[in-house]
Each structure stands twice: as structure tokens, then as C-alpha cells.
Design brief:
Layout (H helix, E strand, L loop, with lengths): L5 E5 L14 H10 L2 E4 L7 H6 L3 H4 L3 E4 L7 H7 L3 H14 L10 H4 L2 E4 L2 H4 L15 H5 L4 E6 L18 E6 L1 H9 L3 H24 L3 E6 L4 E2 L2 E3 L1 H7 L7 E5 L3 E6 L2 H12 L4 E5 L19 E5 L3 E3 L7 H10 L14 E2 L11 E6 L10 E3 L3 H8 L20
Parallel strand pairs: 1-6, 1-7, 2-17, 5-6, 9-14
Antiparallel strand pairs: 2-16, 3-4, 7-16, 8-15, 10-11, 11-13, 12-13
Helix pairs in contact: 9-10
Length: about 400
């Protein structure tokens, strides 16, 4: 196969429901010309690892948190655990500011020291270096090498006002994550006119960047892995757990914005808490065994959770383990995308729940230039990596479970 060059524009939250010829003429024209493939996901707020490895979370290992083996507390740790959570987490937030590798400082010490973090968002906040994405299996960047591949995250148009400036046609694979829209949607989806302006700007930037890629002879692919649903309900998980009456030393929990996981140390804790969570109106509780239908197959001894609470579209967990008043105030001042935090710390929209909640937790893939055979109607995000290799004129590497979605048209 002849080697080609590929630009992947990864735009989380470019929700299909916002696409309109008057608002997003470039993307709509691409959809009309090429069609689209619906991408099914898995229940997680972080889907990039699956896309760039062609493997599921239990294979690549990026699955937010696992529980560490039990260890006795020191005298100092017991003393710290007696202090108010707001004091200890504030200190941890200051520590994170000095050392960003100290991840998720907003979880109080008693729970945090029991957790091991498996997140790659921390790396992406630095601007993105493909070789810093460390997973249990090789990524597309590992397989291509540092000279042939590049990854960049755009967190704000304040920082990168011109997306096209990031490409030069040099690497074989260039991947740009346009995270600014995801961030903007989290905090502004309740402001329709502001959303329209942001989405129109995204469409303009995609058109300009694709035109430059065309001139450089680079194929361009748009990948969207989820949409965004306005928040209508909240669940206070910590309160629900307290009201079960189960002592906190009989279980452990970790709460994202859209989902949570739990570990049980006694049969009583499992029975009582599972019963309470299954009765929640705006969420679905699944055991680790039940998560298998969503391609999550971690063995029990891996420590990745005994049970999972997945919020329904329009519902978030609040307070969650990323909330802290100090962090909220700081982030509200950091970029224009997050000014909504000044009004309320509750996300205005979210994603990351069960993947059958179409369209918020499904995505799509569409070529933005070139000529291709008709696309399949449906696929999975696990198919993105093999498709990248095919468009680069390379064979699918051993170990990737996905299939090739795009074939160049023969005329």
C-alpha cells in the first residue's frame, strides 16, 4: 500500500443535533458528500484511549481509577483523616498546583490514598505530547514513532485562535483534539446563542484547517465521540450512601460527573447499597459482571470496581469528586469557556453515561476531504485506530480488535 498522510480532527461534543446548513455549512456539506458512520462508545468520560489503541479499557488500562490493596494507616494518616475534608482537600489542591502529577486532589485523603489513577487527561492539559500517553498497549503514536506522529490538545480558542496554524503537513499522522467545544458545552449549553456562536466558529475553523490540509495533500478525518445533554437533574451520591446507614469503612466510592464506581468490603454493604442505587430514578446501577455488555471485562482481582452507577442523559452527580470551591473559582477565571462556573458549580451539560443514550453518548465519523467508498452505517470507537492505519496505507497492527471503516474510492 502507498503511504499517505492523515489529519484527524477529534472534536468531542460536536453534537449531531446542533448541525445545520445555516450554522455549520462545512460539516453539513461533508456529511452530504460522504455520509457518516455512527460510533458507539462505552460508559466513560474518557474515550480517547480506546480510539488510539483499537482496544477496550480492560486491555489498554485507561479506566479512571482502581483500588489499591489495603494497607494499615499510619498515625499521621489517622490524624489527617480526623480533619475536615475541606481543609485537607484545600491543601491537596495547593499541592496539585505545585505538582500537577498529584492528580484529583479534590478527593479527601482517606479515600484518595486507596485509589490508583489511570487517567490521561492530566497529560492532555499540558498541551498534548503523543509520547507521554502511556497505556498498557501501544497507541497509534507509539507504533508510528515520534517523528511520524503528533498529538495536540486545544483547550481554548483564547490560546489557539487559529487551528490551521497547528498543521504543517510534516508528520504522517497529525491528530488535534479540539477540547474547547467540550469544555464550552459543559458550562454554556444553557445559553443557546453562545453555543451557536461557538459551534459556528468550530465549523469555520474546521473548514479553514481542512483547506490547508488539502493544499498539503493530507487526508482529513472528523471524529466525534459524544454529544452533550443539558443538565436537568442532580444526584447527591454521598448523601444517598450516608442514608443507607452503612459505615464508610465497609465500602469505597469514586464519583465522576456522570458516573461512579463502588467497592464493597462486606456482604451487608453490597446488598444495602446496591438496593438503594437500583432504586434511583435517573441512573442505572450495574454490577461489574453486568458491565460486560458494554465491553468492560475487568477481572475482579484488578480492583477496577464491584459496581457502577451510570447517570441517565440530563442527570449528573453533584457534588462529585472533582468539585471544590477553590478549584471552581480558579477555573472560572482561567478561560472564557468556563465563566459559567461563576454563577453555579453545577455542569450545565454532560456526557459519559450509558452508550445506548443516543445521541448524547454516541458519536460519528466523516471524511472532510478525499474520495471514499460508502461508509458503514454503524461502528464503534474501537474501529477508529484501524481506520487511521488503513488511510495511512498501512496494515492493521496485531492486537487491534477494530475493523476498517473507510476505503478510498477506486475510479
Amino acid at each position: 500500500m502507498a503511504e499517505s498522510k492523515l489529519l484527524v480532527l477529534y472534536v468531542p461534543s460536536l453534537d449531531r443535533r446542533w448541525l445545520d446548513p445555516g450554522l455549520t455549512p462545512f460539516v453539513c456539506e461533508a456529511l452530504a458528500r460522504h455520509g457518516e458512520t455512527l460510533l458507539h462508545t462505552h460508559p466513560s468520560p474518557e474515550l480517547l484511549a480506546t480510539m488510539i489503541t483499537g482496544t477496550w479499557p480492560h486491555e489498554h488500562g485507561c479506566w479512571q481509577v482502581s483500588r489499591l490493596p489495603p494497607a494499615p494507616r499510619t498515625a499521621l494518616q489517622k490524624l489527617i483523616d480526623c480533619l475536615p475534608h475541606r481543609w485537607t482537600t484545600t491543601f491537596q489542591c495547593l499541592r496539585h498546583r505545585l505538582n500537577p502529577e498529584f492528580d484529583v486532589p479534590t478527593v479527601e485523603p482517606r479515600r484518595r490514598r486507596q485509589l490508583k489513577f489511570h487517567r490521561i487527561k492530566n497529560m492532555r492539559r499540558k498541551g498534548g505530547d503523543a509520547q507521554e500517553i502511556r497505556l498498557d498497549v501501544p497507541t497509534v503514536f507509539d507504533l508510528l514513532g515520534s517523528e511520524a506522529s503528533r498529538f495536540h490538545t486545544v483547550f481554548s480558542f483564547d490560546i489557539h485562535p487559529k487551528l490551521a496554524d497547528l498543521i504543517d503537513g510534516e508528520p504522517v499522522l497529525d491528530m488535534i483534539e479540539l477540547y474547547t467545544l467540550d469544555l464550552f458545552s459543559h458550562w454554556n449549553i444553557d445559553r443557546p446563542e453562545a453555543m451557536r456562536q461557538q459551534i459556528a466558529e468550530v465549523d469555520r475553523q474546521l473548514a479553514e484547517t481542512t483547506a490547508k490540509a488539502d493544499a498539503l495533500g493530507v487526508t482529513t478525518l472528523l471524529v466525534v465521540d459524544h454529544g452533550h445533554e443539558p443538565t436537568r437533574n442532580t444526584i447527591d451520591l454521598a448523601k444517598v450512601l450516608r442514608e443507607t446507614g452503612v459505615p464508610e469503612d465497609e465500602y469505597l466510592f469514586y464519583a465522576e460527573v456522570g458516573n461512579a464506581r463502588l467497592w464493597y468490603d462486606t456482604d451487608r454493604a453490597r446488598q444495602v447499597i446496591e438496593s438503594a442505587l437500583r432504586e434511583l430514578e435517573h441512573a442505572t446501577y450495574l454490577t461489574a459482571e453486568e458491565m460486560a455488555k458494554h465491553h468492560i471485562h475487568f477481572p475482579p482481582e484488578s480492583g477496577f470496581g464491584d459496581g457502577y452507577l451510570n447517570s441517565h442523559a440530563g442527570t449528573i452527580l453533584f457534588p462529585h469528586d472533582f468539585y471544590h470551591p477553590l478549584v471552581n473559582a480558579y477555573m472560572a477565571r482561567k478561560t472564557t469557556e468556563q465563566v459559567g462556573r461563576k454563577i453555579s458549580p453545577i455542569h450545565r451539560g454532560n456526557h459519559g453515561g450509558l452508550p445506548d443514550q443516543h445521541p448524547v453518548d454516541t458519536g460519528y465519523l466523516v471524511p472532510l476531504n478525499g474520495s471514499f467508498a460508502p461508509l458503514p452505517n454503524e461502528a464503534s470507537i474501537i474501529d477508529v485506530a484501524p481506520t487511521m492505519f488503513s488511510l495511512l496505507g498501512k496494515e492493521t497492527p496485531e492486537g487491534m480488535a477494530g475493523r476498517i471503516l473507510l476505503e478510498r474510492a477506486t475510479t
